[in-house]
Task: inverse folding
């Protein structure tokens, strides 16, 4: 909006550096400092890869080359707003399955820690005639009750490894390949990226 009003970019960044969000204010102040040191806006944006997506740097660079920075900012704002709306819609859609999964997991733990041990005395004298399903249930119950800490450590380790992998470019590329190849998610990601492009 400020660019469309012909306000110079350094003045716009000065105003943005007074933003209530400290991260946005710090970013605007850093960009203004880079501009005053002679960098172009796209070069200044490229210095913040953890906060500014490559798509934004590329579009701003194209806008600078074509002298059409204001329309580029307008398109970027629309794109980011659509991305936020899509993310919010996905989060809302995933709440119900997440609640169901947590409930199912809690029920399974309850069965393995409370119900299965109560079955053990029933089959105490007839271990040879115990059905396979009951043997498996009681075995899983004993495994969970005796080695629950191994499962917790395993889950924590898997989460830490996944987070570490997603920070690397190779991990991000692998995650992108997985997202594109997933049955339902792949179509959503492809459509979103194509419309953004």
Result:
């Amino acid at each position: 909006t400020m660019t469309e009003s012909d306000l110079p970019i350094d003045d716009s960044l000065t105003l943005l550096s007074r933003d209530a969000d400290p991260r946005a204010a710090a970013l605007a102040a850093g960009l203004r400092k880079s501009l005053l040191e002679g960098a172009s806006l796209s070069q200044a944006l490229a210095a913040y890869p953890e906060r500014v997506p490559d798509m934004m740097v590329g579009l701003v660079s194209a806008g600078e080359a074509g002298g059409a920075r204001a329309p580029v900012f307008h398109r970027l704002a629309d794109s980011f707003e659509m991305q936020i709306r899509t993310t919010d819609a996905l989060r809302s859609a995933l709440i119900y399955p997440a609640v169901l999964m947590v409930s199912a997991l809690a029920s399974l733990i309850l069965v393995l820690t409370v119900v299965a041990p109560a079955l053990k005395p029933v089959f105490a004298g007839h271990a040879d005639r115990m059905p396979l399903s009951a043997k498996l249930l009681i075995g899983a119950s004993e495994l969970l009750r005796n080695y629950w800490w191994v499962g917790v450590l395993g889950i924590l380790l898997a989460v830490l490894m996944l987070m570490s992998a997603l920070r690397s470019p190779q991990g991000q590329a692998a995650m992108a390949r997985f997202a594109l190849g997933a049955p339902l998610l792949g179509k959503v990601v492809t459509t979103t990226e194509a419309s953004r492009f």
